[in-house]
Amino acid sequence: MNILIRLDLEGVTGVVNYAQVEPGSPEYAYGQRMAVNDVNAAIAGCFAGGATRVVVYDMHWLGRNIPLDEFNPAGELICGKPVLSQEFLEQFDALILVGFHGKAGSGTLLAHSYESDTLDIRINGRSVGEIGVEAAIAGELSVPLILVTGDSAGCAEARELMPDVRTVVVKTSLSTQGALCLPTQKTRELIETGAAEAVRNVHQIEPFSMGPMELLEVDLDAPIVINREKLNCTTQARLNGQTLRINTGTIYEAWRTYQDLRMVTDDNSIEP
Fold first, then answer.
1. How confident is the model over 235-248, as pLDDT tens digits?
2. For the domain with range 2-204, which CATH number is right: 3.40.50.10780, 2.60.40.10, 3.30.390.50, 3.10.20.90?
3. Disulfide check for 99: which of 11, 60, 233, 259 has CB 3.0–4.6 Å away?
4. Contact, 95 vs 4, CB < 8 A?
5. What's the pTM value of the predicted model, to 2 decimals?
């Protein structure tokens, strides 16, 4: 059984401030240690539950957050944020999200939706954050989301979308930059147990569906981040005021179109 883990950092154990997850910050090494704590536990749990292969996609910032010499050697790590093809994603039997958080506008701990200038994301009119986008893309490819680990707000968001999904709360959101945090030893145990149970019961979870793709909408605080030259060359997207609207055949294709239209720099790297 092949498991794909997508790793973010804002929702990992003990992280309560962006300074702890921004490369170059004096506190960044702390965020890295916490991410290693959580993802290594998830990998161990997956194999305990019967997985035969576990691949981790580091999707935070530029995808260079996990020191390979501290990574669980049983797993495989995708670094540098390459674009993953549909064919690559379809080889997995299930998806796990580690270190996730609430969506933009929720007012919860470190809440955002991929980038700080993204105000809202809607798929077929339904507002979603990173959890919803990742679950929808995977579900469209018949890959179920079986576990989410993160703060209490992110886990609640996941259960609202998918009532049957397993969640592991590693910290309770108290404000935008404050949380009641569990110690690493406790969260390692919780995540490993949760991952093992999720993999053992993988067939109990149906792939998440938002129905046939109709429209992806992204509200932007600064629409200047959209490449106007590329936008003028496509018939699939329109920018109306602050809202980019994309109409393509699939959610995967729509999200790829959005990534392609967005001007990305080392300081502004969209999480795929």
1. 999 999 999 999 99
2. 3.40.50.10780
3. 11
4. yes
5. 0.96
